[in-house]
Amino acid sequence: MSITRPLGFRAAATTAGIKPSGKSDLALIVCDDPRPLVAGAGGAGGGSGGGGGASIQARRSSAAVFTRNAVVGAPVEIGREWRGAALRGGPALRAVLVNSGCSNAATGEPGTQDARATMQAVAAALRCSADEVLPSSTGIIGHRLPVDRMVAKIPGLVAALARDKDADEAAARAIMTTDLVPKSAHRELEIAGHVVHLGAIAKGSGMIAPRLDGAGTHATLLGFITTDAPIAGLALQHALEDACRESFERVSVDGHPSCSDSVVAMASGASPVKMMHEGDPEFIVFRAALLSLCQELATKVVRDGEGATRLFRVEVKGAVDNASATAMARCVVDSPLVKCAIHGKDPNWGRIVTAAGNAGVRFDPAEAGLTIGGVEVYRSGVPTGVARNDPKLLAAMIADPVDCVLTVGFGRGRGWMIGCDLSKDYVNINADYTT
Amino acid sequence: MSITRPLGFRAAATTAGIKPSGKSDLALIVCDDPRPLVAGAGGAGGGSGGGGGASIQARRSSAAVFTRNAVVGAPVEIGREWRGAALRGGPALRAVLVNSGCSNAATGEPGTQDARATMQAVAAALRCSADEVLPSSTGIIGHRLPVDRMVAKIPGLVAALARDKDADEAAARAIMTTDLVPKSAHRELEIAGHVVHLGAIAKGSGMIAPRLDGAGTHATLLGFITTDAPIAGLALQHALEDACRESFERVSVDGHPSCSDSVVAMASGASPVKMMHEGDPEFIVFRAALLSLCQELATKVVRDGEGATRLFRVEVKGAVDNASATAMARCVVDSPLVKCAIHGKDPNWGRIVTAAGNAGVRFDPAEAGLTIGGVEVYRSGVPTGVARNDPKLLAAMIADPVDCVLTVGFGRGRGWMIGCDLSKDYVNINADYTT
């Protein structure tokens, strides 16, 4: 189980005919723990819990981060509005309706109206307000959603909501585009004697290099995270931003941030632990679990990158600051020449050094060095003389991930990124994606 | 004829065993008009001319622009030193020694010594000073030059110097790396009753997205331009920077600026026209010819881009300034998703709009529009509804180059870039370049 493992969540998925392939393309995730809150009850797994008279509504919170692309889809615009309102005391999310096959981006005001029509339909079926529903879309850009077909499916989706492994798997599949495998993760941790759950599903394969606001991501990455921990809204927002910065923002498949990248977190508050706020010791434990969950998902996304056969990790050390180091690491993982060298298991390390040199950050090559899989190939600006066919170097290039550590000076700045190789399949997949 | 078409230049090429393929890999271009200057003589084509007592040395000038990559090859370091000295009144170039097969980059101080040894050998053979010789290298990074083999070839190269079509063609071939075809261009223009010539050769196929200093370029682009016009040194430097900004800097094969990008211009002063300075009316005519020459070569470079089958041109209009517009156009031509769509003749125009959205420049999609080959697909932030299989749209996608015009607002900023498609051959070529 993943997204419905935490108490208070149900999910369902169906086929609304958005994808030409006829595969499932519409998922609904609902946060509406139907059980009454009982003060003092609680415990691991199945038990419902009470918050000392606090209503379940008051214990619910949500957070989201969205693409920084200047062009965004209608769902991202609506999501930003929702988030702004939520941070000013507006309602948390009751539901997220996610479709694949059409991103509802570059569709202008008509696209916004389409998204709102689907929100209304979900709100009517769940008997909640439309501003408690978030739409999320991924797929082809510049096409309208088939709203009528989607709306027609919503009563059935709501009727099918369930809290089990099948529901989670169906939702994870329905949000896929060029993904080859569904992606999910979960974490279980103990806080104040109670077991707290985190669950998540994600999709992403191409147009992946998330740069999220608040945080900073590239690609159509969609991530949906659920937890039964009760967390104050602003604290959840900050925790999500920080976690994304060190996970989804650290991966790139093709360096092309999408107009739809979104990561949404929903906390049901159904666990009986007391509400967590920033600075609480319990919250530090929760944040570590959230980060680890996001890193697992981010790695799964780049692992399933379009055409990817192997991963590589680039760490840059010794820069003046972390931002410079990360910018250099990003230039390396996004260089098509480096990606082809990784694909060909070719220790053409000059491409790595020069790719870092294109980040717009000055560094002195005389202070630079590079190791690949621990094999030092470049030191103080000079090749170490390791032979191209050195068995250790060849082994380092065959590894998965290939591990590159670039030193650019004596500063404290560090940064890292994970990328994937560039194969002919990437071209196959993308030369006729819409056709 | 190309580089030796202008009076005062000779060229030769040979095989020094730098390329494992055994193809020619060493070229020498010399500016040393051996004929005496005769006052008052001149005219089209073959005539030598006089500068009213000015020595040929005083009429000679040179200029150069180099990569902005933080990591540069030894030849670029030496070239920057030469340029600094030249701009302070130091000597113009007598010769450029260009090798392919090894970039002599990421080789530290030993690489610099290697380059200087080749400069000394050329200077000895030409009886000039080593600081009048510029080395230029392209090829694998992080490997040492086979200096002894190169030096051994120099007397023969000097003996073979010639001013004819064969010499030009041989030089253009010797500087090739993954290029499929040699690239050259020439211009002839009349200034004050005299015919003035410009000639050029260039190489570049991968690691191409020149960002030149003074100007701004990515890739291993090497360009060598000759002219018999007499031009003041600083004026030639400025003219070269301006021409590169609107030519080589406007093309990208893979968005990876090389550590070796260099464009060098040498003016022999052998034409009898009077010395040209900035602001002279004749110089405006010369600059236009230089720009046109560079644009022809830049287009030839991207046309021969690794794996490229077709070109596309992206123009961005309506931005707040030209730099913003150019940054957006660059994001579009460098997006692997856009490049694959061009390859697949797939009108997946949302990728173009969102690629522009990743330039870090804010724009309002409601003011945005896109035409492909004159077919409007997106207007005021909304799809125009042109069918994907519309015959005009299909024709626009089959065109070469595919012509995309993106409007992002009502500002005066404009910019353009030319890119090429991404094919499986790019992966083939780059997955085992060194092997």
Can you tag this structure with a few keywords?
globular, seven-stranded mixed sheet, 18 strands, homodimer, 24% strand, alpha+beta, L-amino peptidase D-ALA esterase/amidase, Ubiquitin-like (UB roll), five-stranded mixed sheet, 435 residues
Write the layout of secondary structure elements.
Two copies of one chain form a homodimer.
Chain A: E1 9-14, E2 26-31, H1 56-59, E3 61-66, H2 74-87, E4 95-102, H3 108-126, E5 133-140, H4 147-159, H5 165-174, E6 183-191, E7 194-203, E8 208-210, E9 218-219, E10 222-227, H6 233-245, E11 251-252, E12 262-267, H7 281-303, E13 311-319, H8 322-334, H9 336-343, H10 350-356, E14 369-372, E15 375-379, E16 382-383, H11 391-398, E17 402-407, E18 413-420, H12 424-431
Parallel strand pairs in A: 4-5, 10-12, 11-18, 13-17
Antiparallel strand pairs in A: 1-2, 2-4, 3-12, 6-7, 7-10, 8-9, 13-18, 14-15, 14-17, 15-16
Helix pairs in contact in A: 2-3, 3-4, 6-7, 8-10
Walkthrough of the structure:
The structure is a homodimer of 435-residue chains. Chain A is an alpha+beta fold. The radius of gyration of chain A is 22 Å and the shape is globular. Chains A and B meet through helix 3, helix 9, helix 10, strand 16 and helix 12 of A and helix 3, helix 9, helix 10, strand 16 and helix 12 of B.
What proportion strand of chain A?
Answer: 15-25%
Largest sheet: spatial strand order of chain A? 11-18-13-17-14-15-16
Shape label of chain A: globular
Q: Please identify the oligomeric state.
A: homodimer
* Rg of chain A computed from alpha carbons, rounded to a whole number of angstroms: 22 Å
Give the total of domains of chain A: 2
Average pLDDT confidence of chain A is 89
The CATH superfamily of the largest domain in chain A is L-amino peptidase D-ALA esterase/amidase
The level of helicity of chain A is 25-40%
The CATH level-2 architecture of the largest domain in chain A is identified as 4-Layer Sandwich
Number of helices of chain A: 12
CATH class of the largest domain in chain A: Alpha Beta
Number of strands of chain A: 18
Largest interface, counted with CB-CB under 8 A?
A: A-B, 74 and 74 residues
Provide the low-confidence segments of chain A as ranges.
34-54, 214-219
Helix/strand class of chain A: alpha+beta
Order of helices and strands of chain A: EEHEHEHEHHEEEEEHEEHEHHHEEEHEEH
